[in-house]
């Protein structure tokens, strides 16, 4: 059996994201992925059993990466105000610094057939733990974690995607949204 190479695997992941965003799930084949990554189709199969498994594995990796990125910005001594601000700003920054990866995750998440076949998604559980800790400390209101996640991050995604707005306008909207979320969630 051939040895795995981290650089080749990174190139395969980049190729998957690029092609999925350009051609969609059905328009992307293993041979196109291999060609884009600069490897043979046989090499792709060293890393991934089949296309479905590959898409799910890459999706899960990037999905979890988003949440771990957010959590890496949090410290134990932050107030509820600071925590909400850091989570929102970090999410906005992640979207802008990783547009292709973020769009790939969004596209995959929006496809019921693909998402329903996915393994357990562990990525959001650490952020749910953070929410539970905040609720226990009486820093935020006791609402469902899924609602907290949606309320905090969906508006940020919307602000980020406003194509007709300048970056300055987006930052003004971001500031406003931070205040709205803080006022709505903090005790």
TrEMBL record:
<dbReference type="InterPro" id="IPR009057">
    <property type="entry name" value="Homeodomain-like_sf"/>
</dbReference>
<keyword id="KW-0238">DNA-binding</keyword>
<protein>
    <submittedName>
        <fullName>TetR/AcrR family transcriptional regulator</fullName>
    </submittedName>
</protein>
<feature type="domain" description="HTH tetR-type">
    <location>
        <begin position="6"/>
        <end position="66"/>
    </location>
</feature>
<feature type="DNA-binding region" description="H-T-H motif">
    <location>
        <begin position="29"/>
        <end position="48"/>
    </location>
</feature>
<dbReference type="InterPro" id="IPR001647">
    <property type="entry name" value="HTH_TetR"/>
</dbReference>
<dbReference type="InterPro" id="IPR050624">
    <property type="entry name" value="HTH-type_Tx_Regulator"/>
</dbReference>
<dbReference type="Pfam" id="PF00440">
    <property type="entry name" value="TetR_N"/>
</dbReference>
């Amino acid at each position: 059996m051939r040895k795995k190479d981290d650089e080749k695997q990174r190139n395969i992941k980049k190729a998957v994201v690029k092609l999925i965003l350009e051609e969609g799930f059905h328009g992307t084949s293993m041979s196109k992925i291999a060609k884009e990554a600069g490897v043979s189709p046989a090499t792709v199969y060293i890393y991934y059993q089949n296309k479905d498994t590959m898409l799910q594995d890459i999706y899960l990796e990037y999905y979890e990466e988003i949440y771990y990125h957010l959590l890496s910005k949090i410290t134990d001594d932050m107030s509820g105000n600071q925590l909400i601000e850091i989570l929102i700003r970090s999410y906005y920054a992640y979207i802008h610094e990783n547009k292709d990866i973020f769009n790939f995750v969004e596209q995959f998440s929006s496809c019921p057939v693909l998402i329903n076949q996915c393994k357990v998604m562990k990525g959001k559980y650490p952020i749910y733990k953070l929410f539970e800790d905040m609720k226990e400390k009486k820093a935020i209101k006791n609402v469902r974690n899924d609602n907290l996640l949606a309320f905090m991050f969906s508006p940020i995604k919307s602000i980020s995607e406003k194509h007709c707005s300048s970056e300055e306008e987006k930052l003004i909207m971001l500031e406003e949204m931070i205040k709205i979320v803080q006022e709505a969630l903090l005790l």
